Task: inverse folding
């Protein structure tokens, strides 16, 4: 335990004062320091950079105390205090014993001292146990709150799925989707047509067989519907080219404006109002303020990326939170296989296959932004019932190079009619 405690102490040690954190804060590059130590360091310097990795920040970050890290350091300090107290008590016992051996006597006073020492030690241990139990109860309450948030997000996702099903039912009655009903008819007629009146459904086994057949039919129909829906949307394909005037200085764009990657080196470019200056984003050159449009991006080989559309007036300087209320309608990949939609609170997406090419469809008047896995013709996510009031631009972020792990570029690919 002492070895484990030592390693934990090293992890929770401020690299400036070389002591356990007091009111720990985190820099944008992810390193932690005592709030007072970091403020003194920046007060005595003309530039704001990380004392550990030397990354320079254009603006002095607004330091917020990392409450979780502070609780951990407080727990560590409490444990160290208890250990020190126990060591002090043991030393006191040893001193008493040594004194007794030297004097070769065992008086009632010494016996009382020993009893008092052991009594105090037991009380201290009990008090420490009580404090630890209280901290564990607080952590349990925090976990329960996190569980409630996750349940709320799950309920929101279920509600959105129900809305999508309702939209599909409404679309099936429009002239634009009559061919979907024809697919359903062909699927039903292609199956083995048996003389149903002759079938006697008398057992649970027969009912289960019927349920499996209906489920298979429903899955096949859903795949056909999504495939047909994607083919229809591909008819609205537009030619998208990246706008270098909006690109973050770290981004490298190909000469034809169809590829973008993080170059890890800031280029000397004019800081115009159109350019993103903190997050490595870039927009398409052409905006759309009506009708429907569709484009595709190759994301093969990447461990993280963000795609979608953004309105013309979005913030391009400083900290940006991607959500519809801020003018961003996007989905992303993080940590190689974690997919999310930035729909206010992020929505986790469960995909059966890893997309290699992603299609983005927008219906301006309907307030719809949909994402598709092009190769599997499967639906990824849709923002519905949005209110668009200004131009929308294709939005891309290849995300950080991550030491070469994510060096593959995002590539705008020509739209091929998906048969």
Result:
């Amino acid at each position: 335990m002492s070895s484990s405690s030592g390693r934990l102490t090293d992890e929770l040690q401020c690299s400036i004062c070389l002591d356990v954190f007091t009111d720990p804060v985190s820099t944008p590059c992810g390193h932690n320091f005592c709030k007072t130590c970091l403020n003194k360091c920046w007060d005595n310097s003309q530039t704001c950079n990380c004392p550990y990795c030397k990354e320079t920040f254009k603006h002095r970050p607004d330091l917020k105390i990392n409450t979780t890290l502070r609780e951990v350091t407080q727990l560590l300090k409490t444990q160290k205090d208890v250990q020190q107290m126990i060591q002090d008590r043991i030393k006191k016992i040893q001193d008493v014993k040594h004194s007794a051996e030297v004097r070769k006597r065992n008086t009632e006073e010494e016996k009382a001292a020993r009893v008092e020492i052991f009594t105090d030690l037991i009380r201290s241990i009990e008090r420490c146990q009580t404090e630890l139990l209280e901290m564990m109860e607080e952590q349990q309450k925090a976990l329960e709150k996190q569980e409630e948030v996750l349940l709320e997000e799950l309920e929101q996702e279920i509600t959105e799925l129900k809305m999508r099903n309702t939209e599909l039912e409404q679309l099936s009655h429009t002239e634009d989707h009559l061919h979907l009903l024809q697919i359903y008819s062909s699927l039903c007629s292609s199956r083995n047509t048996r003389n149903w009146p002759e079938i006697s459904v008398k057992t649970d086994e027969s009912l289960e067989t019927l349920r499996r057949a209906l489920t298979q039919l429903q899955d096949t129909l859903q795949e056909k519907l999504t495939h047909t829906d994607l083919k229809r949307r591909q008819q609205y394909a537009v030619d998208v080219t990246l706008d270098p005037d909006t690109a973050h200085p770290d981004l490298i764009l190909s000469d034809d404006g169809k590829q973008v990657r993080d170059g890890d080196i800031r280029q000397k470019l004019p800081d115009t109002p159109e350019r993103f200056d903190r997050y490595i984003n870039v927009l398409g050159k052409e905006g759309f303020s009506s009708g429907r449009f569709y484009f595709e991006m190759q994301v093969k080989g990447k461990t993280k990326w963000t795609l979608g559309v953004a309105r013309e007036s979005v913030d391009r300087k400083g900290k940006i939170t991607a959500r519809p209320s801020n003018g961003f309608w996007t989905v992303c990949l993080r940590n190689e296989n974690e997919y999310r939609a930035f729909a206010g609170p992020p929505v986790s997406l469960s995909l059966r296959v890893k997309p290699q090419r992603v299609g983005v469809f927008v219906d301006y008047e309907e307030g719809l932004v949909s994402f598709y896995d092009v190769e599997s013709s499967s639906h990824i996510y849709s923002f519905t019932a949005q209110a668009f009031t200004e131009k929308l631009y294709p939005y891309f972020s290849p995300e950080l190079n991550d030491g070469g792990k994510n060096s593959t570029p995002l590539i705008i690919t020509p739209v091929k009619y998906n048969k």
Summary: The radius of gyration is 32 Å. The longest helix spans residues 108-171. The first strand starts at residue 24 and ends at 26. The CA atoms of residues 1 and 55 lie 35 Å apart.
